[in-house]
Amino acid sequence: MYQQSAESNSHAHNDARRTARSELTDKRLHQIRDLLGRQKPKEALSLASGSGTEGVPFRNARAVCLMRLGDAEQAVRILKSLTVTGGITLRTDSPMECQINFATALAMSGNARGAVSVLDTIDRDDDPRILRLRDAIAHWQTRLTWWEWIQWVGGVAISRPVPLDFEPGELIAPQDGARGESQR
Questions:
Q1: Full-model pTM
Q2: Distance of alpha carbon 32 from alpha carbon 35, whole angstroms
Q3: What is the reported pLDDT for 13?
Q4: Angle in degrees, 0-180, between the axes of helices 112-122 and 128-142, rounded to the nearest 10
Q5: Is 90 strand, coil or helix?
Q6: Domain range for residue 64?
Q7: CATH number of the domain to which 58 belongs
Q8: 25-79 pLDDT, tens digit each
């Protein structure tokens, strides 16, 4: 009986710690979203990089901050670890926001061919975030030189960043009821 009571107390204590950690995580993610909304990606990056930020939502947030700071290549490295397995296959268990962010970071870093490949793998052309990125890539294509366009159509990767007319990056929503919805 004493052992059962001790186990119950231990489980209750662990549940309380997990709940407190989840609340801190949600609070920090809300603060990051707020800073990004106020055009303060450097401060948001600092908050997303502090202790207790090892999880996927924070790694994704760091990548979003880096994209907004213009460091798409570093964002690609972070997002690749979250979305790609075996070097070339998109992980089906990675959050949609990470997959879209990976495609966005690839486009920003000059790998439009890779971005299109990721978008094709996601296969959710009804998603407005994907449509927006596809539109940016289509507009980018109209700016290619004749020779670059021939290469592009022939399947050659053109190493030129895709300019975006929107703020790059989608945050993963905190677990407080907004689960599954992305936040900018």
A1: 0.80
A2: 5
A3: 47
A4: 150
A5: strand
A6: 2-183
A7: 1.25.40
A8: 888 899 999 999 999 999 999 999 977 778 899 999 999 999 999 999 999 999 9
Burial of residue 81, with CB atoms counted within 10 A of its CB: 0-12 exposed, 13-18 middle, 19 or more buried:
middle
Q: Which helix (H) or strand (E) holds 182?
A: strand 182-183
pLDDT tens for residues 102-143? 999 999 999 999 999 999 999 787 999 999 999 999 999 999
115-134 in b/e burial notation, b at 16+ Cβ within 10 A?
A: bbbbbeebeeeebebbeebb
Whole-angstrom Cα distance, residue 76 to residue 130? 17
Number of structural domains, the chain?
A: 1
Residues 6+ apart with CB under 8 A from 74: 63, 66
Helix axes 56-68, 41-48, angle to 10 degrees: 160
